[in-house]
């Protein structure tokens, strides 16, 4: 691989040195003949020192010219790249360099520099969007808590109003806690450098445990569950996968109507397990389905009170960490289906 990458640059230097030596010999021979014809120097043992001095001077002049050519062709673009890298280090990601260079290796270097700057610019944009989104998501529940705390300071409140305000303050605090926990989990997953801690556990039992945990949310809606959960064991991170089912089932509950039906189906093959979560609630528009796993993305503004846009991002990160895949199909008339595929082995 090294030979392939550096061969053209090596050939360039060898050719440059060879041509320089040939040119130096020809020019020096021609100069020597010219000086002899003009009888400036004459053949003889006493003229060796003069010939050597002329050759040395001529070599210095020619070598300086060759060094200048090499500097112009190779070192000048590298100096330009160095200056641009210094600007990038200061946070300027708008720089681009001309990728059309006479030497392929230098051209590749410039091309990689442009690719790097584009990626850094994209990461900086994502970082700014993430900070803005986090700030916005924290601001909403904090404003809610602050508003109801101020209302509680009034003296003419009925017991029912006091209880209602306290309930809303608690909901705001729970929303903040959920947001904080999801951000911490996402950060931990994205920065993880060690393999997940895995154990073997009953996947079907875990999904049933999540249903029982969320019972206070789905019972008031009188949601009916169609469960196809045969006994299946899986080797993975039990705590993280619990968060996957928690977020997906919670979504199904939030967007289902009163007396709705939600189906959970677990199937398997020799290579993978697949869990499908099917609800018949409000669907996701086709143009938004590709972005439902993006951080803080909530296409339908009417749903913003139902979550903070991190649940499905967390689902994707956890499933990816298990080398699996998560996908969604949806229509506004037939509901939504989330598929989680986890490899066995």
TrEMBL record:
InterPro entries: HAMP_dom (IPR003660), HATPase_C_sf (IPR036890), HATPase_dom (IPR003594), His_kinase_dom (IPR005467), HisK_dim/P_dom (IPR003661), HisK_dim/P_sf (IPR036097), HssS/ArlS-like (IPR050398), Sig_transdc_His_kin-like_C (IPR004358). Its EC number is 2.7.13.3. GO terms for molecular function: phosphorelay sensor kinase activity. Coiled coil: none annotated. The keyword Transmembrane helix applies. It is a multi-pass membrane protein. GO terms for cellular component: plasma membrane. It is an enzyme of class 2 (transferase). Keywords: Kinase, Membrane, Phosphoprotein, Transferase, Transmembrane, Transmembrane helix, Two-component regulatory system, Virulence. The keyword DNA-binding does not apply. Residues 72-125 form the HAMP domain. The chain crosses the membrane at residues 9-36, 48-70. Residues 133-345 form the Histidine kinase domain. Member of the two-component regulatory system HssS/HssR involved in intracellular heme homeostasis and tempering of staphylococcal virulence. HssS functions as a heme sensor histidine kinase which is autophosphorylated at a histidine residue and transfers its phosphate group to an aspartate residue of HssR. HssR/HssS activates the expression of hrtAB, an efflux pump, in response to extracellular heme, hemin, hemoglobin or blood. This is Heme sensor protein HssS. It comes from Enterococcus asini ATCC 700915.
